[in-house]
Amino acid sequence: MQNSEIQRITNWLIDGARSSGTPSEMIAEVCEHLVAAGLPLSRFGIFIRTLHPEIFGRNFIWRQGQKVEIGTVDFEILDTPEFARSPLRIVFEEGLEVRGRMDDPDSKRFPFLDDMRAEGVTDYLAMPMPYLDGSIHATSWVTRQPGGFSDDDIAAIRTLVAPLARVSEIISLRRTAEMLLDTYVGNRAGARILGGQIRRGHNDTMQAAIWLSDLRGFTALSDRLPAETVVEILNQYFDCQVTAIRGHGGEVLKFMGDGLLAVFPIDEYIGDAAHVCARVLEAARESRASVEALAFPVGDVVERFRFGVALHVGNILYGNIGGGNRLDFTCIGPAVNLAARLEKITGRLGRTVVASEGFANACRHDWRELGEFPIAGFSKAQRVYGLAEETPVVMA
């Protein structure tokens, strides 16, 4: 390989790989330049561990003449026999290089390399890619060249790992920030925060369908069960709603004990309130079915659950609210207040789903008028609707 070409690729990486718009494009461009410079590379992989509650890491696989494949791996892989006997386990846990020349009997200790051997691979090299925070990530380099990688090839690869680590770390840090914001404040709010809306006063008015729910009998449940059990119940209970909400275009803004606040944005220019509210109602029905099916064994007893959700539609103020340098990206306004009051009515009426007059008018459905109710903080009584298909259940 030409040292000048390696230096050019290194400089390009240090400069941020600016000509590549995505991580996949950056990886493809690096590999193609390396092949053009004389590195006999047939396959390259980069494995990034992530700060995510469900995903252990992401992998990007380049093969000559093919598009980069992107995949994710969950934490269950750590307990598999395949991972226990994988070269990457040594890289991740010990930070060591692992080489597997197919003509070396020692390579037989890695079953993964049997597949490589069947594909005509002659040499495999896994190298640690340390980040500045001390975490260890990994790269893998594969060739079909007779005799495997030369000493010069391996020296060139080692030269490239450090600049590759720097640019991938920058990309990973931004992605981690996006994932953490999505996890804790929601994707819509996360995008705004990353976009620079980080000061008090950065607020927008938005029309949205509003979802506010809570679990029936939660106080009594918390009193008679261990706190750890209550947390497990809450997690499974929220799963019943979050999947449906996100699946129908909503965003969960906040968990408040057993309460959940979500919004479904309405595009005022398109005028899609009817379509959005229909999706909200479908999410409510799916959540109702999931909560009804939820059975949680506690000793000899199987706990069953009910919840209530209030649906409303209106304008909300959406943005940064808080004190000093502790802010919350949330929504406020009379529409949110009304949804919170309506949610309390679900319990009094023994209903799972209740809707405001505004929501019922936007979402044409077989609604049953439940009457007018005085609402604290509102000058006029509010007409409330329930689903005709629901049979009220008054809890003892």
From TrEMBL:
Molecular function GO labels: adenylate cyclase activity
| Broad EC category | lyase
What SMART domains does the entry give?
CYCc
Give the EC number(s) listed in the UniProt record.
Answer: 4.6.1.1
Q: Which domain of life is it from?
A: Bacteria
Report the leader peptide range. none
List GO BP terms, alphabetically.
cAMP biosynthetic process; intracellular signal transduction
State if Lyase is listed as a keyword: yes
Limits of the Guanylate cyclase domain: 209-343
Does the keyword Signal belong to this entry? no
**Which Pfam families does UniProt cross-reference here?**
Guanylate_cyc
Supply the alphabetized keyword list: Lyase
- PANTHER family found in the cross-reference section: ADENYLATE CYCLASE, TERMINAL-DIFFERENTIATION SPECIFIC-RELATED (PTHR43081), BLR2264 PROTEIN (PTHR43081:SF11)
What name goes with this protein? Adenylate cyclase
Organism for this UniProt entry: Bradyrhizobium japonicum
